[in-house]
Structure of Flavodoxin-like domain-containing protein:
Amino acid sequence: MQGYTVGAPPELLRVFRVLSLITAIANAGGNVLLLLFHRPIFALLGVPPPIDVPSFAFVSGFSFTIGVLAFLIFRATQVSTDLLVTGIVAKSIYSLFTFYFYTIGELHWLYRFFGIWDGVFALIFFFFLIYLVSPDLNVLNAGAILPGAERARGRSALLLYYSLTGNGQVAMQHVKEGLLRKGYAVDEKVVEAEEPLFRFPLSWRRFWRITFRAVFRRPAAIKPLGIPADHAYDLIVVECQTWFIGMAAPMEAVFEEPANRAIFRGRDVATVHVCRGLWRRTQAMTIRWLNRCDAHVVGARAYSNPGWEPARLFSLFIFLGTARECYPRWLCGWFLQRQRLSEDKLARLVRFGEALGERPCPGEPATLTGEVSG
């Protein structure tokens, strides 16, 4: 994707810089106050005085250093990838040690708060790091449709997707509608999991099993795709859901099978991601898999369900367990959120399909549709 650049969204940079400054002040300034005035502060909050003062001073100094690091990130937001990695590691260490001491004995709520604070900011830094190290994704998410590969176009497309709840399937039907409008013949291949674990709705037991597997990236078994490497499709559209800030296990299994990778080699491929909200890492994982398969990525869109947090998260859990949207009804609208893409985002996916059907030929400039992911 050389030759195509896109500026960082000012809103995202502004929010991240504000958050970096907040944690810089909290870590650096807060620990200076604790080191100088911990006796009256602890007495006021009911915190037991430190038994080992040198160890207390060391931990406070470590946290102070993290605050200084966060301030440096605030000062050099777009070029501080090394600082971000250091910040992620440092804040994760502090958070993990807090969790460890919490599990082996009593830990005052103030120390637990400090550990949760650093854990949250480790995630914030991690997500922004993904943004900084993936300029190619920024181009695609800004609405660009890139020129296709040097090969004949038979106006034939394949939609390859896995949809647990049906949200992704609906999204792909709208992409299909756009391709059909541009004269494409479209086939669909639904990825099927062999394990009965992946059935909707989910019991609590199966929900937590999937959660555990998603966190540790444990692969899933899927049925053979049956797509030969010499297929006639000149365009493949891959859809993947987000499962716990990563790819859905059945879709990741598609790429983990070496025989499937030839399906994408040298072909124009576009991606669609549908999720509750945190789609950035899932998209990066999918496109990096396609890069390793020597696919020619020409477009990407990611859309999240409507609503606000944490209501959207609670709505998802209820939906996964009951297969009923906005249940109970008296909570619908003002708290519980619908678990489907909005009509506006579905219409954007139709236009995405149309744009893919008219993607530029090699040597032509990228098409800028102006429709961004989000």
Notes: The first strand starts at residue 144 and ends at 145. The CA atoms of residues 35 and 53 lie 10 Å apart. The mean pLDDT is 87. The chain has two domains: 10-133, 146-305+340-364.
